[in-house]
Amino acid sequence: MSLDPKTSAEPGVESSEHPAAASRPRPPPEPVGDVVGRSAVRPDAREKVTGRAIYTDDLQLPGMLQGALLGSPHAHARILSYDASRARALPGVRAVLTAEDLPPIDIGPVVKDQPLLARGKVRYAGEPVAAVAAVDLATARRALELIDIRYEVLPDVLDVEAALRPDAPPIHAPRDGRPPNAAAHIRLVEGDPDRMWSRCDVVIEDIYETPAQQHIYLEPCSTVADVDLDSGRLTLHTSTQSVFRVQAITAEALALPMTKVRVLAPRVGGAFGGKTESTNQPITAALARAARAPVKLTFSRTDDMTMMRSRHGARIHLRTGASKDGRILVRQARIYLDTGAYADDGPFVAAVASYFARGPYRIPHVDIECWCVYTNKLRGSAFRGFGNPQIHFASETQVDRIADALKVDPIELRISNALETGERWLGGAPVESGTLRACLERARDVAQWARRRQATEPCAPGKRRGIGVSAVAHVSGLLGSSATVRLNEDGTVGVNTGAVDIGQGSDIALAQCAAGALGLPLEHIQFSRPDTDTSPYDWATGGTRTTFTVGRAITQACEQLREQLFEQAAEVLQRPARSLELRPGGLVGVRGEPELTVSFAALAGRALYVEGGPPIASARWMFPPFQLDTRRTQVEGLPTMANGFFVFAAQVAEVEVDEVTGHVRLLEAWSVHDVGRALNPAAAEGQVIGGFVQGLGFALTEELLWKDGQLLNPSMSGYKVPGVLDVPLAIHPILLEHPAGPGPFGAKGVAEVSLVGVAPAVCNAIRHATGALVTRIPATGERVLRALLATPDTD
């Protein structure tokens, strides 16, 4: 069978758009010296492995109080009354707050629907309803037990499709004429999908479900808030992904000018999206103001899991059709995302899920509809991949089923339909570096796909072995960043951004960007810590954007600093600036005259004390949002996308399945990523391995479970994260380098995409091994056994 996408269409079937790849971007600039591309040691490595790193909970201020929160016992209830008198009278208690003590302001990144403490009614079990500050944590927790709140229990709704029915209990007041519990609705249609189904030779239709996954960062949410009693100004030290988002949210929630809120980030013990739009900080700030003293609020693991956020659970109705020559022609998706009690980042997550529902393929006819739905559960939020792991699980599982129906190799089917450079994404955005084919071909080779796919060697009795693949696409870069670089008198450079290193190693990568742009050794770069008083603005560490976007701002600022250096050097060397070049080691030289050089230190001294002024430069950059092309795409609810630069990967997993217990064990994995340019190869490989392991939890073990509105497993004993015995040593990160795009030196993002395709690769391997179709993850032993027996999943 021919799988050439450029073969002529069958009669009556429209040809897929396949424009010439004529818009290849210009090569990015080359770094100076050898710092970029070297596996440099992270500056925080020693302090972390020796235990000297200072996290928020390590901070102690004179007179500091301890905070604690009281969570709702009900999933949905009206608050009838509060009585905090006994708690306030308890010795050692300095402040007790309920919604009655706070400004009547709701917050949220998209929909302003969430109070700091429940006001009027509670919408999920665990929702904070009261806060206490006391001299120690035991007293604070004792005070919580003394707060009397009377409730009227209301009917709850826990299923996403049931929540959209006209008779469903309303969680929020209806708006915009939508169903009562719709937080957002998106529809994208291209081509003529209704007409195409009858022209397909193969049509596959399934319902897929993915779980609410908890971020399980090592460090629970923690904030220390101090208040200046003279000015009323708040200073917050907090575990966060963005000091600027915390500043804005805290000021908004407490009705303060942003100038009255300063935020600093100590070391952060992981986040994965769970610490962008937290409410931990403004509650702590409110307690500090009420108590007129510093307050620390550090969540226990259970409080963090019941009060904070999770990945959106999803139910996806997916239908895909293909022709017998291997072209995927049409797709319909109905996506239901469980955003929990509050919208939070849900509308953004819905946008990403919709945008990637076509997959990285040239499918000319699509009908995508996505509902972001309120339920009486924990808030759904940003989580590594941001809606893309959910839709990729459904899409890539279904592509494998099409390959089986057509009797073609799954990798070859993906290669033949893969978008390439110069083609258009759903909505019309250009694919500027379409390297999915290269990723798939490399994965096929390094995994010895053909041999393993056809292998017949015996396994242990009662066990079967299989191998599966997924093709992956994501974006890197969104929203705005800025940076300042300053040349010191000795020729070293200070770099200042607002970017928070949350443990992924962005500080070293960004320092390498500055060093590479200026030709300096790494030890001559000093990187400042995030502080809203002194740092240039950065939106947040998330969305595969920090190295890409902040790195771009840094290199732009370095280019400006270089021009200042050239102006000075032109006078010193008596040569025109256009003839000058940077040389490794902090030197400016003349092209073609190797003996003519001047040091950065000499140029800094001249600028500071003779002419020109302090050598300093700032730059800002924002990845431009993309206006969806309404001439090709019918659009509802999503006029623009905070688009990024498309990045591609391929992931292969080999598993062993126990036919008696259904237990699945990952044997080996290959994760191939086009990283553009590997600024720090060891760090990039670490991201790939870490993302794969987190994706393995999504695929096999991790799931938040509710019964009657109560979260059943809010602890590390009940919530199963992959442990060391679940993760093989043989996870192979393979970095391809195709420099392109606006990232520093052609670098592309890798942080999120490393997780996105793991679940379908694993489940496709399960199906190859056993024939069992897993449509609901995690693929626990019970679910795999049900799939083997083809019995309904009734969990």
Automatic annotation (TrEMBL):
- Where are the residues of the annotated region Disordered? 1-43
User: SUPFAM superfamilies, from UniProt?
Assistant: CO dehydrogenase molybdoprotein N-domain-like (SSF54665), Molybdenum cofactor-binding domain (SSF56003)
Q: Which domain of life is it from?
A: Bacteria
Residue ranges of the Aldehyde oxidase/xanthine dehydrogenase a/b hammerhead domain?
Answer: 50-155
> Could you identify this protein by its name?
CO or xanthine dehydrogenase, Mo-binding subunit
Q: Which organism is it from?
A: Myxococcus fulvus
What phylogenetic lineage does the species belong to?
Bacteria, Pseudomonadati, Myxococcota, Myxococcia, Myxococcales
